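SUBJECT: protein chain
CONTENTS: sequence, structure tokens:
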Amino acid sequence: MLPDAEPLLRSAAEADAQAVRPGVPAHAALLYPWLAVDEVGERELHRLRAALPAGRIPIRMAAVERTGGFVGVPVPELGPVAKAVRTAFPAQAPYGGRYGPNPPVHVTVALDASPEAAADIARRTAASLPITTEVNSLQVVALTPTGWRHLTELPLAR
């Protein structure tokens, strides 16, 4: 999760509440989909931990990307981490392969917005950037029939 990016989602919801996924905090997914909740055990978490870097990752969210009704903010500093996680779980194609084998890591600010709302959200987002922060842990979640479920937190300790 990226709490420092939450204001971007709040601003987007002011422009178009339907474009922001309710109950989903600001985050940058490293590998989605990952594993079904019943497939995650200590062995898989150990493999995930082994793929993570040691130490906090400084990030700077400074750009806005807009494609149709999608508005996002790239998080390039997390690209190497995503690649390591994706390499550790090669059977899991990011986004089902829709965006290639190594899509860029980003924060989704709006999804399926109308063209007018997406333009407004992109302007609002750009006005709130840059955001400089750091990632010091990875939240492991699973999508279940009743919504997202938090499984564990993996600190990026030195």
Remarks:
- The mean pLDDT is 94.
- The helical segments are 6-15, 42-51, 79-88, 115-127.
